[in-house]
Amino acid sequence: MAIRFNLSSRCSALLDPGLRFAPLLLLTDPYIHQEVNIMKPDTSTVDPVDLNLARRHTVGDALTRAAEKHPQQIAVVEGERRISYAQLDHDAEAMARGIINLPDAPEQGEPVAIMVANSADFLAIYFGIAKSARVALPINYALTPSDIAWILDDAGVRTVIIDDAMLPLLEATIAEGVTIDNVVVRETGTGAVENEAALSMATNYARVDLTDLLATPVDDELRLIISSDDIVQCLYTSGTTARPKGALATHSAVVTGVMSNAVLIGKDWGEHPGTMLLCLPLFHVTGLNTLAKPVLFLGGTLVLQQGFDPATVLDAIEREKVTVFTGLPMMWAALIAENQRQARDLSSMETAMYAMAQMPERILAGMDAMMPNARKVLGSGQTEVVPATTFQRTDHRHGKNGSWGVPSPTVRTRIMAPDGRLLPPGEVGEIVYRGPHVTAGYWNRPDANQEAFRHGWFHSGDVGYMDDEGVVWFVDRVKDIIKTGGENVSSMKVERIVADAPGVIECTVIGTPDDHWGEAVTAVVCSDKVPAVSEVSAEQRQQIASEVEAEILSHVRDHLSGVETPKRVWFVEALPKTSTGKIRKNVLREEF
After folding, report:
1. Helices 145-155, 167-174: inter-axial angle, 10-degree rounding
2. What is the pLDDT of residues 395-427, one digit of tens each?
3. Is residue 462 scored above 50 in pLDDT?
């Protein structure tokens, strides 16, 4: 290649790039410029919409592909309803057109809030928003009106799609000072819209019935330019330590992450990729991206339930021949107890997944006894990296139990020191990520973005290490490390040991202020050996609690060092949690 350069405004020459002084001139002469052929197609004669439709990588198109391949396959089972892929995709297409035609409709790129329980309609709404080039913003409807109002105001939401049963909640939210232009109501037949306040609220805004949007004609193809890098969803973090942040994800990030998730699960999809029962909420990243979408993108069947009831779940597994189910440890404990009470045929189960909390060995043993043929899989991740980032392989179950497992094939996972150095195997630091399904950033939080993307990696806020086989071991959240007696103690490490102590149903470990230790390692425990406050006198309960505390500490001392052993144990009847099962340690720190 020839290099053209300017020596002055009046002189130029063509030099052989092999000349020894040419590189020096290129580095030092500000007038030099280089002529290169940058390969780029000339698409000036192509309709931009045609080009976009042919090449894009979007969430809505992923559902359409599944519907074209499996039109009559059942996509969703919801009670007695069975919705085919063709019907689900048609409903999503109608929904997209209905949103576009709303009075004072949201513009492309504008958020649309979803306050709808687990249902086929939720999925049609979500995919319809994606197909309309708007941003889906599922709302955790278990939050308080003030918390929901904060999210709606922060995101600038003008359109809310909501179950009729939640209209009173929306009215209370609007009373906090939020302005909503469009309220799309899904009639559920629950009879929950009984008070005049809710009806009055609905009529003061542009109220539209969801059935009208789903009845929008779907004639020609919806010709919208949707970039693969456009934002498709905004999921607010759980906010267990501070105000929640809106994590933005692009179409490409979601599709790539979901397909990576399917690979990690390791399912032999074949003609039918199995049947998954889902009772975790679709407004959460786990239910929506880690579980529901891999099934739907690949043509499986999703059995939806609203909330968790152990008998209902086991009955559905038996009836629908469910192959995959994911639950929190406390859910698995309840399933084991219910199946011991009344055994079901669970032989269809191939994969039993768990997430979001430590799994005591006794519960894993109970899962093995209840579903001996099912693989037990741990999935870990966070909202900002769309689906799960790691899965614990079956062969890690015993030798590396307690680990997070291996990273997703589409995400680089490393351990970083505070100064930005990448650490070798065995050294503890912050878990950081790079990859195509890392969040595009937080909405309206430039300071948080600056902090999160330091040194060219996404900072998870999790502390851990990788072993020499590339397996990730989680130590603790950065904010949950307990600084005691000049040492850093992992609350998670202590929790794993306390959880296996006699009588412990559930536990967490926090640091509490202490004049001697700085922070005292404190275990907060639910125990079936300690009676409820209402069952015995305060003196009796204190005596029993002291005896159980001694048993727990004796067990812990056999496994942990003195600095790691809890200095005190508090017994509670229930641990405060988010709606998705995460223990709210900040609430406990304030209480104790």
Report:
1. 70
2. 666 677 778 888 888 899 999 999 999 999 999
3. yes
